Amino acid sequence: MKTVLITGAAGDVASYLRRELAGKYKLRLSDKRKMQKTKGETFIQADISKMPDALKITKGVDAIVHLGGYSVEGPWETIHKANIVGCYNIFEAARRNKVKRILFATSNHAVGFYRRDQKIDHRVYIKPDSRYGVSKVFGEALGSLYADKYGMEVFLMRIGNVNPKPLDKRRLSIWFSPRDLAQLVSIGIDHPDIKFEIVYGVSGNRRSWYDNSNAERLGYKPQDDSESYAQEILAKEKPGDPRPEQYQGGIFVVVEEVANPAAERGGAKR
Ligand code: 15L
């Protein structure tokens, strides 16, 4: 059984993923915050903005699912520490520890300034909608470098919004159900021919803004479609600000800060 490191393991996305992947891989969890592990998991508390911590958690694993970092738009110092320094440390520690395979949770916000009337695939030029989006593009660029220069196997998932149900009209287009997330992550861990791939981390939504044929080529067959929630969600939707409504990234294209879900739950600010 492969040993897989999940960084940012105390976060929401990881909590869904751990449930879905239990029993399939030996999970090594790491986070800056203390957290409860369950049977079959190990936990190492670590601050990935410190290289010795990054080296410690990546030692001896078969693959890394790098979810750790600051997950929304916010102050540059915070994003820099978590998503630039932290992300670099994870790639570099993986290289030094000879971990070949790394899955990186990039985001729809790396391309959030594409308009909603455009359908984009994995080959489009980046169009980040925020400093947060720029930090995700940095991670994508690191992935490209480490694949080409060091032969690492890099799987970049531009994740939409992971939730048991889509939250609003924008999320009908980018919803990613926990079981589809688990399927895509398993492909990223186990597919024998990954060199460098960009895929969209979304379910099979009828309203999708993405041509996700690269994920499908690798065997991804999403089981969920947000359309079954559309009526209920659209009935509740209030008319929004017209500028963010034009763009895939929504409010990220206009605001300087988005409420941090981790801080609101009482988790540590990164
Ligand atoms: C993201 O990249 C964030 O990590 C997540 O918290 C959501 O804001 C999501 O995008 C989204 O666009 O809904």
Please render the helix and strand layout as text.
Elements: E1 3-7, H1 12-21, E2 26-31, E3 41-45, H2 51-58, E4 63-66, H3 76-96, E5 101-107, H4 131-150, E6 153-159, E7 161-162, H5 169-174, E8 175-176, H6 178-190, E9 196-201, H7 213-217, H8 227-236, H9 242-246, H10 261-264
D-galactaro-1,5-lactone (15L) is lined by residues 71-72, 107-109, 161, 171.
Structure description:
This protein has 270 residues and is α/β, with parallel strands linked by helices. 38% of the residues lie in helices and 16% in strands. It contains ten helices and nine strands. It has helices spanning 12-21, 51-58, 76-96, 131-150, 169-174, 178-190, 213-217, 227-236, 242-246, 261-264, and strands at 3-7, 26-31, 41-45, 63-66, 101-107, 153-159, 161-162, 175-176, 196-201. The chain has a seven-stranded parallel sheet with strand order 3-2-1-4-5-6-9, sandwiched between helices. Strands 7-8 form a two-stranded parallel ribbon. α1 crosses α6, α2 (51-58) crosses α3 (76-96) and α3 (76-96) packs parallel to α4 (131-150). The longest helix is centred in the first third of the chain and has 21 residues, at 76-96. The protein starts with a strand and ends in a 6-residue tail after the last helix. The model is unreliable at 266-270 (pLDDT under 50).
